[in-house]
Amino acid sequence: MTTYRFPNSFFFGTAASATQMEGAASRGGKGKNIWDYWHEQEPGRFHGGIGPEEASHFYDRYQEDIKLMKEMGHHSFRFSISWSRLIPDGDGAVNQEAVSFYEHVIDELLANGIVPMVNLYHFDMPLALQQKGGWENRDVVDAFARYARICFDCFGEKVTHWFTQNEPIVPVEAGYLYNMHYPNVVDFKRAVQVAYHSMLASAKGVAAFRASGQKGKIGLILNLTPSYPRSNHPADVEAARISDLLFNRSFLDPAIKGHYPFSLVRLIAKLGFLPEVEDGDAELIRMNTIDWLGVNYYQPRRVKAKEHLPNPEAPFMPEHLFDPYEMPGRKVNPHRGWEIYEKGIYDLLINVRDHYGNIECFISENGMGVEGEERFRNDQGVIEDDYRIEFIKGHLKWVHQALQEGANVQGYHLWTFMDNWSWLNAYKNRYGLVAVDLEKGGHRTVKKSGWWLKNVIEQKGF
Ligand code: BGP
């Protein structure tokens, strides 16, 4: 008996990204991106010293992997194209080996009845473009628009589900505020420029899609972190409003409503950090809103009013406007340090329903990274990851609730299909429905959660 039944049209699958799963980082004519370069420079910053060359080898094993996706009941699979594989220097000649690789992947998915959902940018700036300033340089915005056009020309006959970018706030915060991605800058003003240009690039990607006349739809994937105040005290509520403006609405509003929230512009202006803009930008953003929204959800953001004055000598940070708040008794994934709050997924879907025109959306990532899963392998060789099953169930219940209440949520993708290379954490935390055994040359085995989800997909619920 299924207690939580999803509509027949509701789709299930997984998400992944090029740098995290392809491997072959220096083969097939690929140019370097910032991850290849940074790992060469500072391997010690990556867990176990492991770099993107050793990602799960999808480049060589995609046929086997897609076969397994089919066996596990996938309706759809979201992956990204590696910009520096397709255009090694980011803005020049197209690498035909890459065109043929992605064509094969798309064909293989379609032959197995799996809808390919293709994302153009997942944290992987080509090195040659980063050397020109990456998203800080407006020329890179145009290089992205060109890259998008090339992708639509090459693959648009077969791919109908597109995204311009994944989590554009992450390169901003990780690369320009918190020292977790290259180029390891700590500068709020530059971070604002990067955020603005990546949004502009996304709008230009949407414009290029429309101009291509191809069928299908194009969207943006955002990691929405619902902002909860410590209390109902107006100062805490104000702290939550500001963190929501900076981390959620800075992309949600321009992408869906076609303009920035006035209160955000006022705040950034007051701080003296407005980005450089050009005539016509506002019109471009207004005209090129997205068709659908991918929502990644891992954790909420809890904040409180500031309790200590920031050090006036320290560089300005978002945390000068509010303090993070650790709610007593919160549930935490100890491997990642992220709070697990299942109802957050419902709150953000209801927010999209009520404040963003109930735009078509789906859960494009949700998942749990766990270290040392080998210890859960049973005698039959299956990793018994009951905690992941509980995690998925807990979130799907709230997705179901949002559906009942009219949210326009059309599907659920887990992060991720197979254990993959997670940036600085490399292979520390495993997220996959399929285990990848690095000791045995990357041998794949489906975990208990993988078989459980297959059953959910078949039954349309649980
Ligand atoms: C999301 C990213 C993914 C993935 C995931 C897990 O923010 O879109 O690329 O990595 O988070 O996070 P992490 O790998 O940092 O544990």
Would you kindly provide a written description of the structure presented here, covering whatever features stand out?
Helix 3 runs parallel beside helix 5 and helix 13 (343-355) runs parallel beside helix 14. The model has no long low-confidence stretch (mean pLDDT 97). The chain has helices spanning 18-21, 34-41, 58-71, 83-86, 96-111, 127-130, 138-155, 169-176, 188-212, 234-257, 262-271, 281-287, 343-355, 386-404, 448-459; strands spanning 11-15, 76-80, 115-119, 161-166, 217-223, 227-229, 292-296, 301-304, 323-324, 332-333, 338-339, 361-365, 370-371, 409-415, 429-430, 434-437, 443-446. The protein has a domain at 11-162 and 293-459: TIM Barrel (Alpha-Beta Barrel). It contains 15 helices and 17 strands. The longest helix is centred in the middle third of the chain and has 25 residues, at 188-212. The radius of gyration is 21 Å and the shape is globular. The strands form 5 sheets. An 8-stranded parallel beta barrel has the order 1-2-3-4-5-7-12-14, surrounded by 4 helices. Strands 6-8-9 form a 3-stranded mixed β-sheet, covered by helices on one side. It is an alpha/beta fold. The structure holds 6-O-phosphono-beta-D-galactopyranose (BGP). The site of 6-O-phosphono-beta-D-galactopyranose (BGP) has 15 residues, from loops.
What attributes does this structure have?
TIM Barrel, 462 residues, single chain, eight-stranded parallel beta barrel, 15 helices, alpha/beta, three-stranded mixed beta sheet, 17 strands, 40% helix, binds 6-O-phosphono-beta-D-galactopyranose
